[in-house]
Design a protein that fits this description.
The complex is a heterodimer of chains A (417) and B (389). Chain A is of the alpha/beta class and 417 residues long. Helix content of chain A is 46%, strand content 15%. In chain B, strands 1-2 form a two-stranded antiparallel sheet. Chain B has 19 helices and 2 strands. The chains are: A alpha/beta (417), B mainly alpha (389).
Chain lengths: 417, 389
């Protein structure tokens, strides 16, 4: 009897310890000091932390120096941390109630964090708000609120290996401006050694055809699923035809990880990639001569996809006012042009466009595409649907475009319920 | 005098006095650090995750905050009968992982047993070298091995180069979503493709692992058989030589000795190896995370990786936790099932007759010994002891 009492006592003590631990956790989690969405920003003299997912040393260095400049001029301390897994580290920060103040945020992740209140919707308070490209602002608008300032962006264009182009007897006059012309030159450029067009077999490349046909997976605000529209079917039919002709191949079928690798290794005479390809070509395949042109127009005119990230500010940040100032500085023309020089992306503000074009004459087609580029779906859970869609268009050559798009339509529509 | 003798037993009953006083307290004290650590880093998080799996926690702030609601089995039903993408993904992950388990567990057990028997032979020279060599893949980090695998199984990598020497055009391993039992067929018969379970068609369930997953199967066999070989070696060295010797006296050949004498004695180790293998295989994560992240065509998606993806990338924390607990249930069920299959049972009457003394064998003690073989005596002796207390 006594023995069991002791046991109960011990069990009770353990439970008490457990409860204490839990409550300690609870206090650590700080149940959301709601970041006053009505416009009032928190302000304190606390140092800022900036969390970035860096593509390499060049990017880290550039962001570090820009933030350090701001810290000295503003008097608020700020440190930059490079995340090894940005999504995971962001999630940990938000759940613990102590997130980084300013961070990179992808279009995929916006809806998830905006819907659970982790993000400060500060877009309308930016002094340079009207300078951003409207389509980028749309990508970071969720439930009618402009959440965060686009950091920079990239678009897709057509890269052509000029040596292979000349070897096939093609001249500048043959540069494709329509789908038919693209099919023709792709066929001419296909030889035993390389394929005419080699691209990544995923929505983020094939989707460009959809926009050229006038479609996309969702509408511009990501409030309506438009996956199985006739335009998208036309686009996939076109891609399927090229695949079955043998003039288009996916990078993985060429033994390359992405389009740029297939292009650099000389396995494809043309590829569709964004402006990040220039850095890769310079570093890994400096001997390949190539030129960049805008993607050919489809049945509905010109089209391409754009990709962008923004500078998120946490709703739980104790110093939102300073964070906003920092973001304004990081998206200014001076800083964005410096970033562009260091690691390649295009400035997200229109006022920096002419200077950027002057500095990068060969890359002008990328920036020209900003006028008609469309964003990728940003609805919560859309990234999963896109992954699913990607897995299906891997077998587009033998699949039925309508069936693939119908399944995607069902999945996208389910997100909006 | 008489009082003290009367008190003595009473004293012994009261625990709090005498030399053993406070033993329980110090026992708890000594185990306290481990209990607190396990509680803090294992029990508490598990209970929290269990709560999250029944809640609509969105990943911001504490899961115990006031704005988090209990939503019952909603997360579980979305995975098991939702009809949406979540169910499809979960079904696909289960299918992938089930095939992974079906291939990896038997193969790695067989291979590790084979290796253990080989390097355990007295006659083998340089046994230490071989043991180290076979064990080496197990001590290397799984990330490093996965990266190595990505290179080896590249479409233009070493493996395909080797295959090309014998006239085989190797597949594009980590980029090939085709099921290995589909044999390249794109579409199956209607009755298989029309019916689905967990959002995945029967045709896909039966298709086996994709070529990409198969590369991971090879990876798992390569890396884990060394560890299990060690377990088997330890078990083999614990076996007394007398039983084997007795079997040898009876004229059992090497093959028979292995299957009828050695293997039955390894049953506890076999259980350990199969259980560890089963658990490890159902939890496969790091290879997927570093290697393919579920690609190509979601054919290397596993429940463990899906759970991570749902929580950290999609902010579906409830679903992520629910997947983890479904996985837990699966593992427990399979382990129990396997325990039941491998349980020690009474030798059946039919079997027992083999060892019985044939009644017609005369009455002399010498003829009895010849009827009941030496090995049978050695083997059944412990069994009989157990049967007759």
């Amino acid at each position: 009897m006594q023995r069991s009492t002791t046991r109960w006592l011990v069990a009770g003590a353990l439970a008490a310890i457990g409860a204490l631990t839990l409550s300690a956790c609870g206090s650590g989690f700080s149940s959301g000091s709601s970041g006053s969405p009505s416009g009032g920003l928190t302000s304190s003299n606390k140092a800022l932390t900036v969390l970035i997912g860096s593509s390499g040393d060049a990017e880290t260095k550039a962001v570090n120096s820009a933030v350090a400049d701001w810290a000295t001029s503003s008097g608020t301390k700020a440190t930059v941390n490079v995340a090894s897994d940005l999504n995971q580290q962001l999630a940990q920060g938000f759940s613990s109630g102590k997130p980084a103040d300013v961070f990179y945020l992808s279009t995929d992740a916006l809806a998830g964090y905006a819907s659970n209140g982790s993000l400060l919707a500060y877009g309308d308070q930016l002094s340079n708000k009207s300078d951003f490209y409207p389509s980028l602002v749309k990508s970071f608008t969720y439930n009618g609120k402009f959440y965060c300032a686009p950091k920079d962006f990239s678009t897709l264009a057509l890269e052509i290996n000029t040596d292979m182009w000349a070897a096939a007897g093609l001249t500048d006059a043959d540069i494709p401006t329509t789908w038919d012309q693209l099919a023709t030159v792709a066929k001419k450029l296909t030889t035993a050694g390389h394929v005419g067009l080699g691209i990544g077999g995923e929505y983020a490349r094939i989707g460009a055809f959809m926009t050229e046909a006038g479609g996309n997976l969702m509408n511009a605000d990501s409030t309506k699923a438009t996956a199985n529209s006739q335009a998208n079917i036309t686009a996939l039919d076109y891609a399927k035809k090229l695949l079955n002709d043998g003039s288009l191949k996916y990078a993985k079928d060429l033994g390359a990880g992405w389009g740029g690798e297939a292009f650099g290794k000389g396995l494809a005479a043309m590829t569709i990639e964004g402006n990040w390809i220039t850095g890769g070509m310079q570093a890994d395949y400096p001997n390949i001569k190539y030129k960049i042109v805008e993607l050919p127009a489809g049945p509905a005119g010109k089209g391409t996809l754009q990709f962008t990230n923004c500078w998120g500010i946490a709703a739980d940040s104790p110093n939102q006012a300073a964070a906003l100032k920092l973001v304004e500085k990081l998206t200014s023309a001076g800083d964005q042009l410096a970033f562009s020089k260091a690691f390649g992306p295009m400035p997200s503000i229109q006022s920096a466009a002419s200077e950027w074009k002057k500095a990068n004459p060969a890359l002008v087609p990328f920036l020209s595409a900003a006028d008609y580029a469309k964003g990728v779906p940003t609805a919560k859970g859309a990234a999963d649907v896109v992954t699913d869609f990607n897995s299906k268009i891997e077998s587009l050559a033998t699949g039925d475009p309508k069936t693939i798009l119908d399944a995607t339509q069902t999945n996208l529509a389910a997100l909006l319920k | 005098m008489s009082t003290t003798t009367r008190q003595a037993p009473a004293l012994r009953l009261r625990k709090k006095s005498g030399i053993r006083r406070g033993e329980a307290a110090s026992g708890w004290l000594f185990t306290a650090p481990m209990l607190i650590l396990l509680g803090l880093f294992l029990v508490v998080p598990v209970l929290m995750a269990l709560w999250v799996s029944f809640s609509d926690w969105s990943g911001r702030g504490s899961p115990f905050a006031g704005n988090v609601n209990f939503i019952g089995l909603k997360n579980y039903s979305a995975l098991l009968s939702g009809g949406g993408l979540a169910e499809q993904d979960f079904g696909t992950a289960l299918k992938n992982n089930a095939w992974y388990v079906v291939l990896v567990v038997p193969l790695q057990t067989a291979l590790s047993l084979l290796l253990a028997v080989l390097v355990n032979r007295q006659i083998l020279k340089g046994r230490g070298f071989f043991r180290t060599a076979f064990y080496f893949p197990s001590v290397t980090s799984s990330v490093a091995i996965t990266v190595l695998w990505l290179f080896l199984f590249n479409s233009t990598g070493a493996v395909n180069k080797l295959l090309s020497y014998i006239g085989i055009t190797g597949p594009n391993w980590f980029n090939d979503p085709g099921g290995i039992f589909h044999f390249g067929a794109a579409n199956g018969p209607g009755f298989l493709t029309a019916n689905t379970a967990l959002g995945v068609s029967w045709w896909d369930w039966l298709g086996g692992p994709s070529v990409a997953m198969f590369a991971f199967v090879l990876l798992a066999i390569f890396t884990t058989s060394g560890t299990f070989m060690l377990l088997f070696i330890a078990a083999l060295q614990n076996l007394g030589g007398d039983v084997t010797e007795a079997a040898m006296m009876d004229g059992a050949n090497g093959w028979q000795r292995f299957w009828r004498v050695t293997l039955p004695q390894l049953r506890p180790t076999l259980f350990t190896v199969l259980t560890l293998g089963l658990i490890g295989c159902w939890q496969v994560f790091d290879q997927i995370y570093t290697g393919t992240k579920g690609a190509p065509g979601k054919t290397t998606l596993t429940p463990a990786y899906l759970s991570y993806q749902a929580a950290f990338n999609n902010q579906e924390w409830g679903q992520g936790a629910a997947i983890a607990f479904l996985l837990f249930i699966i593992i427990v069920v399979f382990t129990l099932l396997q325990r039941w299959i491998l349980a020690e049972r009474k030798v059946s009457k039919r079997r027992m007759r083999l060892y019985d003394i044939p009644p017609s064998a005369g009455s002399g003690p010498s003829s009895g010994a010849s009827g009941q073989t030496a090995a049978a005596i050695a083997l059944t002796a412990p069994l009989q002891r157990k049967d007759r207390p």
